[in-house]
Amino acid sequence: MRSPRGRTQLRRPGSAGRARPAGLRSRRRTAVRHRGPRPGLARPDFDFRRNAISQLSLGDLGWIQVTGFLLTGVLVLAGAVGVRRALVGGPGQRWVSALVGVFGASFLAAAAFDADPGAGFCAGTPEAATATLSGHGAVHMLGGMVGCLALCAAFVVLGRTFAARGRRGWAVASRLVPVVVAAGFMASAVTVLAFTSGAVLGLVWLTAVCVRLAGDGVTR
């Protein structure tokens, strides 16, 4: 191709393909905006920042979350039995075991009574949060609240147990963790991530406590 001055202008290979359709550019920008922790594993309409984990029990793949609730409940109940044996003759034996058992039972209740849809999940659900709770949704939320309080109370009692055993660090942590867990539950109305973080912390600390108690039992 010649310019008005008669010189030949060379085009780089592929330069003609630089002008991409506006639709393609728009799709790419949309894809970039949607990157991050938005999808809930196999549930592309689930958003961890807006939806509660319990809502994964809804829809065709809800059985996966329900199974998770059942397995977690059974494991926590088994842990309650183990805690009772580990604390034989020690302070808090009955209370800790019973409270951990209530926490485990709350997972069984969550499996039996589904959470309400809301915040855009499942597909076709309005983007706004659920204004009123259904019967099963109310039982689900009540079970979660009771389980959370029971777990926090168990940690407080365990703080006394660890203090009696001379494990000061574990005693202090067992008194601080329930504060964070309870705060996450109360802040769930503001952001669901607060509740999720508190629940994860509670489960992690309960696991650590069970391992610690089991180790103390072996070294007696």
Q: Could you please describe the fold and organization of this structure?
A:
With 220 residues, the chain is mostly helical. Helices cover 61% and strands 0% of the residues. It has helices spanning 22-33, 62-86, 93-112, 135-164, 168-186, 192-219. The radius of gyration is 26 Å and the shape is elongated. The N and C termini lie far apart (91 Å). Mean pLDDT is 78; it is low at 1-40.
- Mean pLDDT over the residues: 78
- Biggest sheet: strands, sense, closure? none
Helix content: 55-70%
Radius of gyration: 26 Å
The count of DSSP E runs of length 2 or more, i.e. the number of strands, is 0
Low-confidence stretches: 1-40
- Strand percentage lies at under 5%
Overall geometric form = elongated
Please report the distance between the alpha carbons of the first and last residues.
91 Å
* SSE pattern, N- to C-terminal: HHHHHH
How many H/I helical runs? 6
Specify the structural class.
mainly alpha
SSE arrangement:
Elements: H1 22-33, H2 62-86, H3 93-112, H4 135-164, H5 168-186, H6 192-219
